[in-house]
Amino acid sequence: MFPLAIDPIVFSIGSLPVHWYGLILGLGALAGLYLAIREGKRYGIPQEFFMDMLLLGVPSAIIGARIYFVAFKWEDYKDNFMDVFKIWNGGIAIYGALIGAIICAIIYFRYKGYPFWRLVDICAPGLLAGQMIGRWGNFVNQEAYGGVVEESFLRDKFHLPDFIVNQMYIDGAFHHPTFLYESLWSLLGIALLMVLRRQKFVRAGEIFLSYFIWYSIGRFFIEAMRTDSLAFNGSSGLASFMNGLWSPMTWFGFEQGYLDPAYGNVRSSQLLALLIILVAIVLIVIRRVTGRSSAHYSDPIVSTKQLATDTIVPDQDVNTTQSSSQPQSRMPVDRDKKE
């Protein structure tokens, strides 16, 4: 690989190098935290709740992301086990991160007494923000890039700045900046979710599920352009089906990145993206039909533990505090004009 146009190490503290990759991931996490805190204020949820969630969620996401990646690349790690822990060199999978974060959220929200679907709705735009910024860590590391492309495609057709074009010169050729495509797709998704969550028809859980649908659509088409996809050997029919769904991208001048046939013929993330889209749509329909999503996004959010605390009144104070012991609904404040 040619020398990096951008040094992946920002600075060193003694013998400890500080990588751009880690700083960028941290910035993405803080951006997601800010969006969650800002929206949580509308429902009276303290910012400490989201800060504690971040402290628990980030390690869970990193662990899940690394386990997912290593599981698919075990042949590369089984004889170099210590490399499993070198996440600063890249090699984390976003779907694994989501699995780790969701497991953590289920436990944490239950512990705090908040309904899972209501809180993940609030966090959904923040997840996209983290992914949008985090992809620039891949840019610095020169990873998660696409297939070979002409320099003129980047400079003349997309009018990309020099620092991006130069960083996409890898192994003697220019490559698709798939990190940029996914980052921009996530930015559009944030705007979409922020508009969608102000619509009165939106039910609990549907912002979160819409996040999965939006991200997975983009991931399906962008993943095929990459040259480092996790893959497996599937049937020729499945491979042809996947290629057929992706084929409209050729109308815009895009081509699929090289995938070694010996490694596999079906990209795992593409197949998973399709399954997630299907499951998310089915969940939205089922939850509406069965009434499980009777609550709307704009409805108050109250912790069951806080509700129980508010309704406990000492015997001697029953007469004087009865009226004040009723749980107060936390109605969101309309901030559409500030959005």
Report how far the terminal alpha carbons are from each other.
Answer: 44 Å
User: In order across it, which strands form the biggest sheet?
Assistant: 1-2
User: What is the structural class?
Assistant: mainly alpha
Number of strands: 6
Mean pLDDT: 86
Determine the strand fraction and express it as a percent band. Answer: 5-15%
Number of helices: 13
Organism: Paenibacillus donghaensis
Function: Catalyzes the transfer of the diacylglyceryl group from phosphatidylglycerol to the sulfhydryl group of the N-terminal cysteine of a prolipoprotein, the first step in the formation of mature lipoproteins.
Region (Disordered): 313-339
Pfam family, one: LGT
Write the SSE topology:
Layout lengths: L8 E5 L2 E4 H21 L6 H26 L1 H4 L16 H19 L3 H26 L9 H7 L4 H6 L1 E2 L2 E2 L3 H19 L9 H18 L7 E2 L3 H11 L19 E2 H23 L13 H8 L6 H4 L18
Antiparallel strand pairs: 1-2, 3-4, 5-6
Keywords for this entry:
Phosphatidylglycerol--prolipoprotein diacylglyceryl transferase, Lgt, 6 strands, 5% strand, 13 helices, two-stranded antiparallel ribbon, mainly alpha
Task: Describe the structure concisely for a colleague.
By secondary structure, this protein is mainly alpha-helical. Helix content is 57%, strand content 5%.
General description of the model:
Helix 1 crosses helix 2 (47-72) and helix 2 (47-72) runs antiparallel to helix 4 (94-112). The protein is globular and about 65 Å long. The two termini are 44 Å apart. The chain has helices at 20-40, 47-72, 74-77, 94-112, 116-141, 151-157, 162-167, 178-196, 206-223, 236-246, 268-290, 304-311, 318-321, and strands spanning 9-13, 16-19, 169-170, 173-174, 231-232, 266-267. The chain is built from 13 helices and six strands. The protein is mainly alpha-helical and 339 residues long. It has one domain (12-298). The relative contact order is 0.11. Catalyzes the transfer of the diacylglyceryl group from phosphatidylglycerol to the sulfhydryl group of the N-terminal cysteine of a prolipoprotein, the first step in the formation of mature lipoproteins. One of its GO terms (molecular function) is phosphatidylglycerol-prolipoprotein diacylglyceryl transferase activity. It comes from Paenibacillus donghaensis. This is Phosphatidylglycerol--prolipoprotein diacylglyceryl transferase.
